[in-house]
Structures are given as C-alpha cells and as structure tokens.
Design brief:
The structure is a homotetramer.
Chain A: H1 4-14, E1 24-30, E2 33-38, E3 45-46, E4 50-51, H2 53-72, E5 79-87, E6 96-105, E7 109-117, E8 124-133
Antiparallel strand pairs in A: 1-2, 2-6, 3-4, 5-8, 6-7, 7-8
Chain lengths: ~140, ~140, ~140, ~140
Amino acid sequence: MMSVSELAAFFAQAFPVGQVERDHDIVEIKPGSVLLQFEPDAASLRPGGIVSGPTQMGLADRAAYAVILAHIGPVAMAVTSNLNISFLRPVANRRFHAQATLLKLGRRLATVDVRLWQDSPAEVLAQATVTYAIPA
Amino acid sequence: MMSVSELAAFFAQAFPVGQVERDHDIVEIKPGSVLLQFEPDAASLRPGGIVSGPTQMGLADRAAYAVILAHIGPVAMAVTSNLNISFLRPVANRRFHAQATLLKLGRRLATVDVRLWQDSPAEVLAQATVTYAIPA
Amino acid sequence: MMSVSELAAFFAQAFPVGQVERDHDIVEIKPGSVLLQFEPDAASLRPGGIVSGPTQMGLADRAAYAVILAHIGPVAMAVTSNLNISFLRPVANRRFHAQATLLKLGRRLATVDVRLWQDSPAEVLAQATVTYAIPA
Amino acid sequence: MMSVSELAAFFAQAFPVGQVERDHDIVEIKPGSVLLQFEPDAASLRPGGIVSGPTQMGLADRAAYAVILAHIGPVAMAVTSNLNISFLRPVANRRFHAQATLLKLGRRLATVDVRLWQDSPAEVLAQATVTYAIPA
C-alpha cells in the first residue's frame, strides 16, 4: 500500500495547483479506505456561502481515486467510468472530509463508497458511489 | 420561459466569476431543453490535457439547473439532490456542449437528462441524469 | 446485427419462463437501439394496481442487454455492472415499452440509455442508464 | 419505531404472495437500519444458477422501503424516486441478506444505503443507494 507521503507526492506532481483534485490533504490511508480533508476557498462556494456541488463531486472523485491508487500503485490512467452522488445536507464553509472505502477492487473495475462529512462521520453530507476503469 | 439573456443575467448576478458554473455560454433555450457551451481553460484540465471529471460534472449540473430555471423562473433555492454521470469518451481541450432535456418537471422534483458532446450531438462524451429538489 | 427472431430465440433458450427477463416481446432492432414491449400480469403489480419498481427495473435491464447482444452477438456472459433508474411517472397496468439506445459500445464496457413509456415515447415513465461489463 | 412483527404484518397485507417484495424475512430493526434476508427460488435465478439482477434490485428496493417505514410508520404511498445499484460479485443460489441504513430521513426525501451480502457483511455483493419521495 502507498503511504500518505507517497500518494501526496504523486498528486502534487501529476495535478496542477488550484483544483480541489489537488488542494486537499490526505489524512489517513488504511487497508480498504482513505480519508481526505479539504478547506474550501472562495472558488468552492455557491450563493449562500455553502460548498458547491462541483466541489463536493471533485473531492468525492478524488477520494475514490486515492483509495484505488493507494492499493494498486500510481496508475495514472485509471479513469472514472461512473459517479453517482446524493446530496443530503448543506456543506458549510469550513473544512470537510471525504472518507473513501473500497467496495470492490477488481482487475478491470473498482467501486468505491465515498461519504462527505464535516462535524461527525455519522452525519453524512453527501454519499457517492464511484466506479473506476483500471487499464489492463 | 426565460430568455437566454434573462437566464444569463441571473447566473452572472448569482454566481462568482471563475467557475464552470458561471463561465459558460447559453446557446439556446427551447421548450424542454437548454444548450450550453463551455471553453475549457487550464483549471479545467487534468493530466494528459483532457477536460477533468469535475469540470464535466460542473457543466452537467449547471445545464440541468439552467433548463429547470428556464421553465420555472429564477428560483435560486432549487438544489441538486442526485447526480449520476457516465463518462464515455475523453473530452478534448476545446469547446464542448451540454444539452439538457427535461425528463420530468414535477412540483417537488425535476429530473433532467444531460449529454456532453463536442463534435456531434450523436457522439455522446458523457451522460448525466440529474434530479433537483424544488422548494415549496 | 442479430435479427428479432434470432434474439428472441436466444432469450427463450437462455431464460426460464415466468420472468420479466423473458416474457417480453422484441418489437424492433435498429442500429444503436432496440424496442421491447411487456404486458404486465398480477406478479408485475404493486398495491394500487400500478407496475412495480422491480418489474420496471427488470425490463430496463433486459432492454439494455438486448441492445448490446443485438450488436455483439449472443455473449451470455455480459453482466450488468451498474444500473441507475429514475422513476418519473406511474406505469399503468397495461402494455408498456422499453426503448434502449447505445450510448457507447466499448470493448470492455457498454453503456445504454433506457426509457420506459406507455402512451407516447415523449412521455417518459422511467429513465435508466445501464452499464454492462463485456467479457474479454 | 415499528417492530419486526408490525412491519411484517404490513407487508403481508399490502403485497401479494410470490414476489421478492413480499417473500423475505425481516431479521432485525434497529435505529437507522433494517436487515432483511431472502431465500432464492427458481424464479430468482438467471442462467448459471446465480441470483438475477432484478431479484437483487427488488430486495434492495424493499430493504430501503422497510427502513423508511420502520421509522415513519406504514405510509404506503412512499415511492422510489431513484435507485442506483452496483453489482459487485455474483450472488449464489442460497439465502442472502440486505442491510439498509438511513443516510438521511428528510421530510420529503429519504435516502438509504443498501448492501447485499451472503457470507459476511464485509463481502459486499451489491451496493445500492435508494431515494424515496415521502408524501406530504
């Protein structure tokens, strides 16, 4: 399994500054799961001062990618084939988390459950199921 | 139905500069559908120079919102409850379109089919089904 | 492309009597799309006399499978990897249709848009996006 | 919260014999979750002797319905608005379970995470996210 610093170094080298896909922190990597956190900025917000849907989707997608890479190594060409997200509660303008858990890591497809939360993991703000296609 | 200029004015006033949610053009509004176009910039790309998933999801979500607002008027509080997207083909680093078509506009929920395309509407790059909750 | 009678013969041989997966009619096969129809019976209904969700999901899944097989031949081992369905309007207790359209037929994944309708294709009762994994 | 016997009695009275929607057992109801089990029969299977997709979808939908009713009482008119399911591993022809957990129980929408499993809850065979619309 990749370590937090190895995975962070891979993202820093592969992705440009200024995107939710890069500007998150990897809090923890464990067998089967990864925890990310993200600090919203002005570009992350929508009217009313809550975190926008695309920001939430970006972090959910990134968390899914992170847990897959952590287990199979830095395969930059894994690509999202499907993402389904349910927005459950508003995400306030402060740090929030994405917990990604592998449902299945197959040879060709990997499916990940992602939950966004802020105050407590039990208060889920959004749930996403994300499928990645893994190159042969 | 709102006109292109009315809808564009609403988005310009309600959303900040520098987000895919704002920096698109509304090409056409027809009964039941809206066509948007978007010109990617550096922030829209991922490694390999193709348009990132979050950019695609942002435009899909925006197109769904646009077709709903065009039909019910500027109800800023309509919120996405679910978004499901299938990424089918790479989106190259040039202008692409989002065609949003109402599947159902109910009193409480609106469901929209969105297709992203670049060279031809028949060559779908991504398909999204987006559900918005409409305030009472 | 398989003909209606070839595809019907394959389903009749491969699936048992008494399931929505078998007891439908193939109305038409065209490049990129297939149209099925299904006559509900008592087992298809839920309280209130409308067609149940599982019946709708079964026909949607079957229509997706049909359009894929029609294009790649009778590969019994293609399996559904993801199905997303939005239930939009009640399906009354009489014949209804499933129109399946290929969004992408790749080597490893095929993604299909399915719409259920009864009185008119323009009045969509349910929309599904279905992804099949195709064996190597 | 409804008890197992109250919920079972409601399903037995509201649904006809011979459907996955009825012929399951309610194993347990706890705050926020319900566990169902189902014994496949010939009608539940597809070629190869594994449990069919529609059977899995039927039980997932039923488990979501069960956990909602257990918390709000027997509101027969709650209807599925969206169901997204990822089929991860084959379901063998023997008893399997559906664990439904409330992600959010709102006034108008309820969203439920459902996992199908057979040998161990940790080996997820299918994951579904199901949204119900709750009548006013």
